[in-house]
Amino acid sequence: MYLIDTNILLEILLERERADEAEQFLCHGPTGTLFFSEFSWYSLGIFLFRQKRYEVFLQLSRDLFESSSIHLVRLTPEHVPLLAAVAQQFQLDFDDAYQYTVAETYNLTIVSFDQDFDRTTRGRKTPQEVMGKENS
Prior knowledge:
The chain has helices at 6-13, 19-28, 38-50, 54-66, 80-90, 94-106, 127-135; strands at 2-4, 34-37, 70-73, 109-111. The protein is of the alpha/beta class. The chain has a single domain (2-135), classed as 5'-nuclease (Rossmann fold). The chain is globular.
């Protein structure tokens, strides 16, 4: 079971260098085992609304949550102590600590291009690493 980090979708939206890898993962990756945090979802909304790209956000919502098997997960106020501890222990900023805490809480593998997760005990996988594992 995999937690999709925000940067996977941003890679596609911003047409960055690894956009094809991210898109292949989302379109052909493991079905039924993909999760996205509520925080990441709202972060994308903030990003797209600032650019007045409302339709893109609506289409993403349909693509990710209505027509695929990506599950939305969230933290509650009870998770804040763990979030703060994780941030301090691994020297993560808020968004990375949030993602890590979600992964810890739901026992998910983080899928990300962000190397900050490499210094944590959970680590991370790139989309290509997950796809290679699934195809083996």
